[in-house]
Structure formats: structure tokens, C-alpha cells
Specification:
Layout (H helix, E strand, L loop, with lengths): L2 H26 L7 H14 L13 H12 L5 H8 L3 H4 L4 H8 L1 H12 L9 H17 L2 H15 L6 H21 L3 H15 L1 H13 L1 H21 L4 E7 L2 H11 L10 E7 L7 H15 L2 E8 L12 E6 L5 E8 H9 L1 H8 L7 H14 L5 H13 L2 E5 L5 E5 L4 H8 L1 H5 L1 E6 L2 E3 L11 E5 L9 H4 L3 H32 L6 H11 L4 H10 L6 H6 L41 E3 L1 H4 L3 E3 L11 E5 L5 E5 L3 H9 L4 E6 L7 E10 L4 H13 L3 E9 L2 E10 L2 H12 L4 E7 L2
Parallel strand pairs: 2-5, 11-15, 12-14
Antiparallel strand pairs: 1-2, 3-4, 4-5, 6-7, 8-9, 8-10, 13-14, 13-15, 16-18, 16-19, 17-18
Helix pairs in contact: 1-3, 2-4, 3-4, 3-9, 4-7, 6-7, 7-8, 7-9, 8-18, 8-19, 9-10, 9-11, 10-11, 10-19, 10-28, 11-12, 12-14, 13-15, 16-17, 19-23, 23-25, 29-30
Length: 746
């Protein structure tokens, strides 16, 4: 045994105890009642339980619970109960100890939280759809029983994301997708903005490593000029607030890489055109005897005397806080060099709530009788659990409506203020007030004018609901509502009706199969599902029950006599030579098996037996992609940022595999370029010259619109890969009259 190996256990012990001392140091800096003995007892117990176990990275396993406990105290501000629960959170799952053992040693409260964390361990989602919904429900139930469960779970996920580099790519996509889809919005809703930003950033880093590094590099290049601009901008504000006699701190807040990328993507702009990279945050100590809200407006007045404000960019969350408890006054002002800068004004209390979220929210709430927006939100979660969706993806979608909704404020006929999600309709409002009001709603009066059920509400609207006893909910109402509560209520009503139709549809399909003497086994059902382009069996039965499907296809096309069926198992390849138009469609053999632990290579050869390109996002060589193994073992290739892929990553994580292009210049794919510029004679000829002469690229369709001297053209072209598109964009951009060139998806 080498000297290093002999010393290793001692070095690991030193490392563990250093980490524990750091945890205690952070805990001592808080205002919590000091329960050092209890925390030490929990640490010693967890350390002994995990002894000898290593993480995938090779470090001792106990380092993970210690890291989670440090996040819990330092970044969320929780106390000894949560620290102990974080230290013990994997003990029951990974060792022989039981919840009863935890309760006997640490009491019922810590045992209840550890039990909640154990129930939702291993990620929120299991392999089967029914289990996913059940696991997700458990997460929400434990959250509504004790919110600390979800706060520790978010800390656990944050540490897993920070150490995701040691995982294989397919696992990275699954965990990153799950994080982006559920944990980041959950952190946002609970007011944990710093954690939410980091989770989004890390998810993006593993999904799009090259793009992430590219933006990071550009931020580093820009750093010196940015710091100089910040100093010039903040100096007059610093001077003014000091003259006013305030104690305060000024902080520069840099936009995250993920936020920059999202802005570039949604607005189709390059990095250089993202102007709001920097924001200034003012955190002030309020003066005694004066209202905090009034002082925010005093500081606003002082800043707008120095810099001109943007009239449409004032965000007043001090008069009406966000549903997650966030309070602040935001104003965008014109700084030096003609640049817009956002200034955020917060008191120390407001900043504490913004940084620490829920924990701080409840610390300041002591003695308040009024129910906060956050309490109301937790109440709606409990309501959702009373009538959960049987389908995992539907259930999560309904829940996510609650996570993502920004709020607007509307008034009842009596002038009472109500908070509802942005984009909500008159029908949503009716269901928010009461289910019966929603079920019998025939219309509404908004600002004393008659409007339909689908009318979208605006902040400040006064709304009165009109009802009729004869009215009953209609299926199209699901298209009229946007809030989780209304969708959940309607789906519950329609579910009973659907059960009857599903049973009828199943009978019809089985009757058709029996004509050909076939059984409704998995292989036959997969072929039927593929034919009708439906993913869920219940959805197939429902459509059959409604009479939407032509069920004669089952015997005439899907299972026609074998002599005529030589080529139906191997369908068309989604690739063509550069002169032809691409053909999309399934490409899979039902018998093929995929090794999910290896990176799947996308070549011309295995296209015949192995994969198809998703219709939803049309990936091409060079795009960041992943594979989804469907029920018939076909690999469906999606772009990593595709919304459908986001759902698949978080709901069917075990079916996600890493995929890599090994094909580039053989096949052609149809893509759309959007070109905007000044409408001058000959500009179209210039563009066509670059496309067809410069690159020999074929064009299938051109749409040109002009308005007041500006034109927008859409060019449908055939390219081999992303590199072709990037070169085309770069060269079209060189034409003097062109303002922007973007690849878009129609």
C-alpha cells in the first residue's frame, strides 16, 4: 500500500470535519436559537450511517448531506430542525435505519421532514408515467404539510446540479431537464431568486455547453467597459443618497447567462443587442417612524431627478407585492451613453425576503392576521391534490400553470382587490371565486361592458360575473381558461364523461383486432398508436369512443395481409440528397433495441433502423440534440431546447439518451431564414445571389412583405447543417441594407 493510500482515510476525515465546522460557523452567524448539540448529534449519526460510501465523484457520501445543510442555512436561512433534516435526508433511503429510529433519536418533527424527503427521493419522477404522477403528488402533499421539505429538496437539487459534471450525458439531460421544468419555477414561486437563477444557469450549461461558454466569454471581454459604465452611473446616485442621510448599499446585478440566451432567442437578437445586462440594486436601511413604501418612492424621486425614467418601465411591487412575497420598486432610467439601466429599490427587509424567500417571508409575518398571496397559493395546491390528473404530464402542466403565472390585479363589483394570473380570462375569474359560479357562467361585465367568457383580463379591470342555472360546462371551455384551478375543476367534470367514452373506444378497437384474429397486446397496440400518431392508449380509446378515428384502417392498412406488407415495418428515411425535398416520418424497426448507456450516433446508415427527427422542432446536424426512446424502441431526435423535449426529460427521464451527429454534408434539410432590412431596389437580387450562387443552396419558397420602406422576407432553403446556416446568415448580413438574419421555426 502506498503512503498516499494510507493517508487517504485521514485526509477524508479532516475534509469532512472541516466542512462540518464551516456549517457550524454559518449557523452561529444566524439569529436562530443555538442548538449546536442537536446538529452535532445529527452529523455524527449521518456520518456513521454513510461511512465507507462514496459519491460518483469519488468523495465521501457524507459531503453531500453536509453541502445541502450549508445551502439550507446560508442561502435559505433555515434553523436547526431543517439543518438536522438535511444532514439525515438520505439515511433512511440508503441505510438500514428506519423513520422510527429517526423519531426516537431526534423527535417527531425532524422524522416527519425526513420521511417527506425519503418519499420523494431519487428525483421527483420514476420510470413509469403513473408512478411519476404519484411521486409528484407526494412532493406536493409533503410541501403543503411542511414547506421545509421542499426547501431542503431544492437545496438537495442545487447541490446535485453543482456536481452534475461527474454524471454521464444522458443522466445530465434528464436531471437538467427536470430542474428546468420543475425545480427552477418552484424556487421562483417560493421567492428563492438567487437559487432559481443558479438552477436555470446550470441546467442551461449542461444542455448547451458550447452556447453557454460562448456567452460567458463575451461577458468576460465586456467586463472592463461594463465596470467603468457602472461606476459612472452609480456615483451620482451614491452622492445623492448620502446627502439625504440614508444608510444604504449599491450592488451591480449582472444578467445571468441563461437570461441573456433566452432574450437572444425570444427576440431573435445577437448578444451585442442585449442592452440590459446590468442593473443597479439599492438596499437601504429605513428610517424609524416612516413608512417603508413612502421611503421607496422618496428614493425613486431622487433617482429620477438625476436620470430620466422610462414611462412604461416602472414596476411597483411595494404597493401590491408578488404572490411569492417579493416587494421592490423597479424603475428603468436613461443612463450615460444613451443606455437604459434598471434600478431596483428595496429596504433591508424586502431584500431579505427576495434573497431568502419563504423562510424570511414567514420570519417577518409573525403577528399578521391577513392571509398572504403565498398562503393563498399553497391553498390552491391543496385543492389541486383533491382532484389530481391521472396523466403525469397533464398533472405537471396544470401545476406549472400555478408556478409560472405572473399576477395582475382586478376588482370585484364592490371594489375588493383580487390577484389572478396574467392572461386569465373572465371564466378563470369565475372559477377563482367559486366552482358553482364558474359552472353556471354565461358571460361577464368588465368595466360595465358585456364581454364573452374568453375575454382576457387586464390589471385594474372591474369584473362582474353573469350566470344562468341552465348553463353547464362545455368541452371548449378548456380553451378559454388559463389558470390551474379552472383547468383542474373542468377536467374533473369532464373525466366522468370521458371514462364512458374510453370504455366504448377500447371495445371498438378490440372488436376490430378480433376480426383479424389479433390480440390487443403491446406490439399490436404500439403499431396502432403509431398509425394514428397518438402517444397514450387512453387517448386512443377516447378518440375511438368519440368516433374521430377511422377504425377500418386497423384491418385495411395496419394489419393488412402479409404478402402486401413487405415494407411497412421499415418506413421512410428522413434524409435526402441535396437536390430533393426532405421526407419526414417514422424510421423504426419494432424489433430493434437501443443501448441507453451509450451516446447514439446519428449517421445515414442507422437512420434506416434506428431514429427519426421530431416534427415539433426539426433538428438538423450541428444542433444540440438528445434522443427519446419511444415505446417501440425508436429513437426520436429532439433539439435540447425543444419544449416537447423539456417535458420528456422531466417525465420520462429513463428514456432519454445522449445523441451526437456523425452526418453532415450528405443530406439536406428544409430550414427557414427570416431576413429584415431596408426596402431598396435590387436588395432581393443581392440576397438570392448569396444564397444560390455563393452556397449553391436550393430555395423552395420565398415570402416577402414590405411596409413603409422596411421589408421582411422568409426564405425556405435546403441546407446540410447548422454551419451552412451560420455562414449564410453572416454573409447575408454583410449586405448594406440588411438589419437582421435569423433561423426561425415555423
Amino acid at each position: 500500500m502506498s503512503l498516499n493510500e494510507e493517508l487517504k482515510p485521514q485526509l477524508e476525515e479532516d475534509q469532512i470535519h472541516q466542512e462540518f465546522e464551516a456549517l457550524l460557523g454559518e449557523y452561529r452567524n444566524t439569529n436562530h436559537r443555538q442548538k449546536i448539540e442537536l446538529i452535532t448529534k445529527a452529523f455524527n449519526f449521518a456520518n456513521a450511517a454513510h461511512k465507507g460510501i462514496k459519491r460518483r465523484s469519488g468523495e465521501p457520501y457524507i459531503m453531500h448531506p453536509l453541502a445541502v445543510a450549508r445551502i439550507v442555512v446560508r442561502e435559505i436561512g433555515l434553523g436547526s430542525t431543517s439543518i438536522c433534516s438535511a444532514l439525515l435526508h438520505d439515511v433512511v433511503e440508503d441505510t438500514d435505519y428506519t423513520i422510527e429510529d429517526i423519531e426516537n433519536l431526534f423527535g417527531p418533527k425532524i422524522a416527519q421532514i425526513v420521511d417527506g424527503l425519503t418519499k420523494i427521493s431519487g428525483g421527483v419522477f420514476a420510470e413509469k408515467a403513473s408512478e411519476q404522477a404519484e411521486n409528484f403528488r407526494k412532493l406536493l402533499i409533503t410541501m403543503s404539510e411542511d414547506i421545509r421539505v421542499i426547501l431542503i429538496k431544492i437545496s438537495d437539487r442545487l447541490h446535485n446540479m453543482r456536481t452534475l459534471g461527474s454524471m454521464p450525458p444522458a443522466k445530465q439531460y434528464k436531471i437538467a431537464g427536470e430542474t428546468q421544468y420543475i425545480y427552477a419555477p418552484l424556487a421562483h414561486r417560493l421567492g428563492l431568486f438567487r437559487i432559481k437563477t443558479e438552477l436555470e444557469n446550470l441546467s442551461f450549461k449542461y444542455d448547451h455547453p458550447d452556447t453557454y461558454n460562448n456567452i460567458e466569454q463575451k461577458l468576460m471581454v465586456d467586463e472592463v467597459a461594463r465596470n467603468k459604465f457602472y461606476e459612472d452611473f452609480s456615483l451620482p446616485i451614491d452622492k445623492k443618497l448620502t446627502e439625504m442621510g440614508y444608510e444604504f448599499s449599491l450592488r451591480a446585478r449582472l444578467k445571468s447567462v441563461y437570461s441573456i440566451w433566452r432574450k437572444m432567442s425570444t427576440r431573435n437578437i445577437p448578444f451585442e443587442e442585449v442592452y440590459d445586462l446590468l442593473a443597479l440594486r439599492i438596499v437601504f436601511k429605513p428610517r424609524e417612524g416612516m413608512n417603508e413604501k413612502d421611503q421607496c418612492w422618496m428614493l425613486y424621486s431622487a433617482i429620477t431627478a438625476l436620470y430620466k425614467p422610462h414611462p412604461e418601465r416602472i414596476r411597483d411591487w411595494v404597493s401590491t407585492p408578488k404572490a411569492n412575497g417579493y416587494e421592490a420598486l423597479h424603475v428603468t432610467v436613461m443612463g450615460p451613453e444613451g443606455r437604459w439601466v434598471e434600478v431596483q429599490i428595496r429596504s433591508e427587509r424586502m431584500n431579505d425576503i427576495a434573497e431568502k424567500g419563504l423562510a424570511a417571508h414567514w420570519k417577518y409575518k409573525m403577528g399578521e392576521a391577513e392571509e398572504s398571496e403565498l398562503d393563498k397559493w399553497l391553498k390552491t395546491i391543496k385543492e389541486l391534490l383533491e382532484h389530481p390528473e391521472p396523466n403525469a404530464i397533464d398533472f405537471m402542466d396544470t401545476f406549472k400553470l400555478n408556478l409560472f403565472a405572473s399576477e395582475i390585479f382586478v376588482f370585484t363589483p364592490k371594489g375588493e382587490i383580487k390577484t389572478i394570473g396574467q392572461g386569465a380570462t373572465a371564466l378563470d375569474f369565475a372559477y377563482m371565486v367559486h366552482s358553482d359560479l364558474g359552472n353556471h357562467c354565461i358571460g361577464a361585465k368588465v368595466n360595465h361592458k358585456l364581454v364573452p367568457l374568453s375575454y382576457k383580463l387586464n390589471s385594474g379591470d372591474q369584473i362582474e360575473i353573469l350566470t344562468s342555472k341552465k348553463q353547464t360546462p362545455q368541452p371548449e371551455w378548456l380553451d378559454y381558461v388559463t389558470t390551474a384551478r379552472a383547468k383542474s375543476k373542468l377536467r374533473t367534470l369532464f373525466k366522468k364523461e370521458e371514462k364512458v367514452l374510453i370504455a366504448e373506444g377500447q371495445e371498438k378497437i378490440e372488436a376490430q383486432l378480433s376480426i383479424s384474429k389479433l390480440l390487443p397486446d403491446n406490439e399490436n397496440m404500439v403499431r396502432i398508436l403509431n398509425h394514428y400518431n397518438i402517444t397514450q392508449r387512453n387517448e386512443l380509446y377516447l378518440q375511438a369512443g368519440k368516433g374521430v378515428l377511422n377504425l377500418e384502417d386497423i384491418n385495411k392498412l395496419i394489419f393488412k395481409p402479409k404478402s402486401q406488407n413487405v415494407f411497412t415495418r421499415y418506413l421512410k428515411i428522413p434524409f435526402v440528397g441535396s437536390g430533393d425535398s426532405p421526407k419526414h416520418g417514422p424510421t423504426v424497426s419494432v424489433d430493434s433495441k437501443i443501448d441507453r448507456n451509450k451516446t447514439f450516433k446519428l449517421t445515414e446508415e442507422n437512420a434506416i433502423t434506428g431514429y427519426k427527427l421530431a416534427e415539433c422542432c426539426h433538428p438538423i446536424p450541428g444542433d444540440d440534440v438528445l434522443g427519446y426512446v419511444d415505446e417501440s424502441e425508436a429513437v426520436v431526435i429532439h433539439k435540447r431546447q425543444c419544449p416537447v423535449a423539456a417535458k420528456l426529460k422531466s417525465s420520462y427521464g429513463e428514456r432519454i439518451i445522449s445523441a451526437d451527429w456523425a452526418t453532415h454534408k450528405v443530406q439536406s434539410f428544409e430550414e427557414v431564414l427570416e431576413v429584415k432590412g431596408i426596402d431598396k431596389k435590387g436588395v432581393l437580387i443581392e440576397i438570392l445571389k448569396v444564397i444560390s450562387e455563393g452556397y449553391g443552396v436550393n430555395i423552395s419558397k420565398i415570402n416577402i412583405e414590405t411596409d413603409a420602406g422596411i421589408f421582411m422576407g422568409r426564405f425556405h432553403i435546403y441546407v446540410h447543417d447548422v454551419e451552412d446556416i451560420q455562414n449564410l446568415c453572416k454573409n447575408i448580413n454583410k449586405i448594406k441594407e440588411i438589419n437582421s438574419v435569423q433561423r426561425i421555426q415555423e
